[in-house]
Q: What sequence folds into this?
């Protein structure tokens, strides 16, 4: 897999790969391919005809900071590009104009055409860090939907049923919610049909999306069949978990890394990643082979911190290049070592049990009087423990434990010993 | 109620009536008025402003033979006209163009604009027998829907939810059908919204419909409220049962009387009406006061056949005038008396039990030989019993019962006696 570079700026002329070689690359990290043998057939057709596969990815121009979670399908799209296929980006500008006529959802406020234009340009600029925009086909769905009449719309609506729509996970959940069903507005039912019709309009061979998109992607197949087109193959990617290793990466949860962040920020945030999702991140955010990832995520073979540094370098290299990645690592290491407690910490013997904080500061010799101690506490100079938890209550007490480290400012440090 | 004529051609200048007088006329035979006090308020507003109420009735131009069942709401519309209000007929020409894009329903085949035009003209001609078209406002809903964009359509769709739509009786039934749910296509969900928007477009004060229309009528209220209009009052009329007194009147069931039928046909068919629905027919198809209907439908006060003759005259008078009604009754009575068996029927004594039909004809003296009998049977000349059931099988047998009447052609008749 030598040509699969992690430096996005160097998308070179694709090498011809066999169907099996392409399948190995494309299947890596995917969640579902529908139908299962569809991708192979499309690739075989491509080899026979020489016509690149048209690989669709839809974008919602509602104003988004693109983060690593978004890049999972985008990186797959880039792989298709690297294999010589055509990335077709659909900007859902017409969908964004609809907003939420029910007035129910503030996040789906109806956007003006100007806002949509600005958002779309901003979004493209961001994802230009992942795919090669110069080789992509970028289409807006207003191109076809602005010409739709009421008749065209009802004709589209006639392609699906209430029953089928209620099979979609989010609709099903809202419909079955108790004690009260959560309203599903009728215009929302048109969104999957719009997304499906986009596939008809651009004659997609493949559509990429997150795993929650499978229903909408399958709608594309249905509508293409109704339009006598060869239906697209649906390829879904797993949802990336955020830095907490628990929830889906998202801006509102603060557990994300933005593609527009500085090299230092991206590296430091990667270093704060929980251990558990590391394998998933390596798989979905780097091109490292599975065997290597196995070695990197086995604590007996690689120390988790070293593995995380490798991950951090990979992430930063992709967005800022190898030099910036090395520099970001050095910066992080320097800060980390500065924050480290010195090897030899002076010790002080104190009685066990609860003790008033000002008195403790006097006992260990940090302050000359309770009064001075209270002032330092109030100004936030006192911290405790490995997390350097700040203690700011001058009336507070400390439960003394053997080995507990107490700090005053950045210079004074002492390890407590029970005497 | 002298001015409430049953002759549709003489709609005269309306007399000013008080709200209570109008309410008495308008409430007669209605099933539901929603909201209950709404009609009174609208009538009071009309008296105050002098502006006639706009009373909407929607027509589906899919090619219909208008029958008495359809006339129930149309007669109510005529009453509004007689009281000086404005009938507004909506021809759903745009709705008819949609048809059924799912290809599921042959009766909702997509019509061409030409077909819609022909059907609409034919329909108007037919209902011109019930309401005064010269005083009605006739609108086609293509007037507004042909200008709808995709955005307008989704905006309309956003006014309702899947949950609310599934409250509509027919949708609810299909959704809950077992063992398999019956598909509800998404375009069907747009129909109630279209009907509702028609009310917005013409600023309806009242909408009339059959009882199964209540959901759609209420949608009009909702959409008018959303458009800051005073919502319409919904007035539903009961469904008329057909000649069998059992099922809803309908062409496919053959239990109907068409408004375009001849006076003779209308009268004769009314005479074949079951006794049970007579009161309902008097109430919904004539203007006779309730006290009179009570008398007509009480078998102790009026013989059912006499009541039915009155009903038949009323029906025919409305469509063909009083003279034609009298003539139709006379024709029917003549035929009826001709069909009656003579007072003195010759008798013939035969053995009890099953007997071959040809042999029976010879025994009673109708035929000279079994051969002649078989020929007459084959040509359909033999009938039996009060229903004059034809017997056409020369190998058939008859179970002889005392008093059974046997006929050959229209002249020979005999009553069998067991000997």
A:
């Amino acid at each position: 897999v030598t040509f699969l570079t992690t430096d996005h700026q160097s998308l070179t002329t694709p090498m011809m790969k066999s169907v099996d070689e392409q399948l190995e690359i494309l299947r890596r990290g995917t969640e579902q391919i529908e139908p299962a043998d569809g991708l192979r057939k499309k690739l075989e057709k491509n080899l026979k005809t020489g016509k690149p596969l048209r690989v669709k990815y839809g974008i919602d121009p509602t104003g988004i900071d693109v983060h690593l979670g978004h890049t999972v399908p985008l990186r797959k799209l880039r792989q298709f590009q690297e294999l010589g296929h055509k990335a077709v980006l659909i900007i859902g500008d017409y969908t964004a104009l609809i907003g939420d006529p029910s007035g129910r959802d503030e996040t789906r406020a109806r956007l003006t055409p100007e806002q949509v234009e600005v958002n779309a340009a901003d979004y493209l600029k961001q994802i230009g860090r992942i795919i090669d925009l110069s080789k992509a086909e970028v289409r807006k769905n207003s191109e076809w939907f602005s010409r739709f009449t009421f008749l065209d719309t009802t004709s589209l609506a006639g392609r699906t049923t209430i029953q089928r729509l209620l099979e979609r996970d989010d609709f099903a959940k809202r419909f079955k919610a108790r004690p009260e069903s959560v309203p599903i507005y009728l215009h929302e039912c048109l969104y999957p049909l719009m997304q499906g019709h986009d596939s008809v309009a651009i004659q997609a061979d493949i559509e990429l999306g997150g795993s929650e998109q499978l229903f909408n992607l399958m709608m594309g197949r249905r509508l293409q069949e109704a339009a006598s087109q060869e239906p697209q193959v649906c390829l879904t990617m797993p949802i990336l978990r955020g830095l907490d290793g628990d929830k889906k990466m998202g801006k509102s949860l603060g557990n994300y890394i933005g593609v527009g962040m500085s090299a230092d920020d991206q590296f430091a945030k990667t270093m704060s990643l929980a251990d558990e999702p590391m394998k998933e991140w390596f798989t979905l955010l780097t091109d490292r082979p599975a065997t290597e990832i196995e070695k990197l995520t086995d604590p007996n073979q690689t120390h988790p911190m070293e593995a995380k540094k490798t991950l951090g370098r990979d992430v930063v290299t992709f967005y800022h290049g190898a030099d910036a990645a090395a520099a970001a690592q050095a910066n992080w290491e320097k800060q980390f070592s500065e924050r480290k407690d010195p090897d030899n910490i002076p010790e002080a013997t104190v009685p066990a049990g609860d003790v008033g904080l000002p008195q403790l500061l006097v006992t260990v010799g940090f302050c000359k009087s309770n009064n001075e101690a209270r002032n330092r506490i109030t100004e936030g100079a006192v911290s405790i423990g490995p997390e350097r938890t700040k203690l700011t209550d001058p009336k507070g007490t400390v439960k003394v434990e053997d080995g507990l480290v107490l700090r005053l400012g950045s210079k004074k440090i002492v390890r407590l010993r029970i005497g």
